[in-house]
Design brief:
Blueprint: E1 7-11, H1 19-32, E2 35-42, H2 47-57, H3 59-91, E3 101-106, H4 109-120, E4 124-128, H5 134-140, H6 143-150, E5 154-158
Parallel strand pairs: 1-2, 1-4, 2-3, 4-5
Length: 162
């Protein structure tokens, strides 16, 4: 059996500790000549908060404000990701064959990651582990665990850098 690795999706949360996860994806991409997709999922505002603000501000004004801010935030996030990707690419001993592609979406992280992975038909999903502790995990769950349970794709979870 040979390993086919043509497309890699790495979900990025823009934390400083997460840049090594992107580097890990780049190193794999170099070895397999794969295309890397870097995904950031921006969380959506809780519906109850939106309802409260809509009552105060007006639904039309809120919709315009939200659309404008989401687009602006997505663009700034893309710029941050491109900057981080450039820094990580400089640290590589090999040159990344295919320039990484960046995607920024709004939504719930796990379903969005799975949706993008399906749309792009990636061979591997790479995620970072935050090691937030047992209490946090017990109450909030884990994006990584949700993805592991719901995908048929290979998932690699990269531990925090020490």
């Amino acid at each position: 059996m040979s390993i086919k690795l043509e497309k890699i999706l790495v979900a990025e949360d823009l934390s400083k500790a997460y840049s090594h996860v992107v580097r890990y994806a780049f190193e794999l991409a170099c070895k397999f000549h794969a295309q890397v997709y870097v995904l950031h999922v921006m969380p959506t505002v809780d519906p109850s908060v939106l309802n409260m603000v809509a009552l105060t501000m007006g639904a039309d004004k809120l919709a315009k404000f939200n659309a404008l801010n989401e687009a602006e935030l997505a663009e700034k996030t893309r710029e941050q990701l491109h900057s981080m990707i450039a820094k990580e690419a400089e640290l590589m001993s090999e040159e990344v064959l295919h320039p990484p592609k960046v995607e920024v979406h709004h939504g719930d992280a796990a379903p969005m990651i799975l949706s993008v992975a399906d749309r792009l038909d990636v061979d591997m999903i790479i995620l970072g582990s935050h090691s937030k502790g047992r209490l946090h995990y017990a109450f909030l769950g884990s994006v990584s665990e949700k993805i592991l349970r719901k995908t048929h794709r290979t998932v690699v979870i990269v531990p925090p850098e020490k």
